Amino acid sequence: MSVDWEEKYNRFVSASKEQNKEEMSKIQEEVQEFFLNPSQEDVEWIKSYLSDDNRKWFVGTNIRGLSAFSEELFIPLMSAAIEEINPDFNRTFVEPCMKAFGARRVNEYLLHILERGPPFEQAGAVNALYWAQIPLNYEMKNIDIEAEPDSQFTLKNATEESRKAYLELADIWQKKHLLYLEHFVKSKHTEVQQSLIPSLDLNEEHYPESHKFLVAKAIKIAKSHPDEYIRHRLGVQLGTEKYLKPLPYRRKDHGKKKKSLKERIERISKKFKE
After folding, report:
1. CA–CA gap between residue 193 and residue 227 (Å, rounded)
2. Which of 81, 121, 125, 233 is the least buried, fewest Cβ under 10 Å from its Cβ?
3. What is the DSSP letter of 260?
4. Which of the 8 DSSP states describes residue 146?
């Protein structure tokens, strides 16, 4: 049996405006069971909400906290994360998938979009990957951090549990490392390069022989790039600038007719299976 999504949404909006946390929590409890076991009608409603710039936050907010939900919601949530132009707010859709499907599944999917998606989605996937990392936790060995500012925060000094979780995805981190450099050099799209450069490693010693020469190319491209943000971030990477400017928002449509979420999901699903 499907839920009346419009009724739930309207109640949630009213409760949000009134800052009625009790009512918001009640609505969350009411809809969460439908994220776990949605009917096909529910899935279509959820997809339509995730393609709407206002209603998508209703889904993102209320799916939080669930450790599992329907497999059919994975790609729609990932698509919402990729489409979101605010590189902070996209975490609303990434983090539930990290919790329900795991870091490997999320990272593999987003890296696939970076490899094979159109430029707008490539940039969105890179932005979403920021929230798909495995954090390393530390037990401070020296309270006086000024004495050893960097030596404590290494993989070697991470807690055993967080180090193990991180190393289980070593192949993913290596693939990501190489793809970022490759795509920064070969992309002709400024927004893709803008999204890549904050996380781009420009130390050629960190790359295999096959990729070392690309580091010099990347630096040359960034130095002469017409985009001010890319030149700025190169300065940060090289230590000539300290102030961090925020990543510019992507343009939503690039002057082209935007495909529906359903069309995008079908296209992405087809490519992901190839």
Report:
1. 10
2. 121
3. P
4. T
